[in-house]
Amino acid sequence: MTAMVRALRGATVVADDRPESIAAATQELLVAMLTRNDLQVEDAISVLFTSTGDLVSAFPASAAREVGFSGVPLLCAQEIPVPGSMQRVVRILMHVYTEKSKSDIEHVYLGEAQELRRDLD
Fold first, then answer.
1. Closest CA relative to residue 112, chosen from 94, 86, 84
2. What is the pLDDT of residues 55-84, one digit of tens each?
3. Per DSSP, what are the bridge partners of residue 48?
4. CA–CA separation, 4 vs 67, rounded Å?
5. DSSP readout, 69-96?
């Protein structure tokens, strides 16, 4: 099978708004997304990070560079502040080359963020 471009999603809840907390949670999520989908950093085309408005002490993309994503285009944005939505969330949309079908891609929601996508259980 030929490699196709696929998108995979992930989210995690950060313990608090400190740079080290944002970095640790972001790196854990990135590694889990790669591992669960049998991918390497070299398979990544681009990565979009969003964070809720209460996470302002660091860019999630900075944490990604520390785990090998320095040659991958990275972009950070802020989530829409919907009243009542989950707080301290970092979300990732990663575009990759893979031979997996869309249905075989495993989206990764860690910890409390699993509540965001109960349909993926």
1. 86
2. 999 999 999 999 999 999 999 999 999 999
3. 75, 93
4. 24
5. GGGS-EEEEEPP--TTPPSSEEEEEEEE
Q: Residue 53 CB: number of other CB atoms within 10 A?
A: 11
Model confidence pLDDT, tens digit, residues 94-111: 999 999 999 999 999 998
CATH superfamily to which 4-120 belongs: RutC-like (3.30.1330.40)
Looking at per-residue pLDDT, the higher value among 94 and 113 belongs to: 94
* Alpha-carbon span 92 to 107, nearest angstrom: 10
Please report, for the chain, the start and end positions of each structural domain, with discontinuous segments joined by +: 4-120
**pTM for the full model?**
0.94
CB of 89 within 8 A of CB of 29?
A: no
Q: How far apart are CA 28 and CA 64, in angstroms?
A: 10
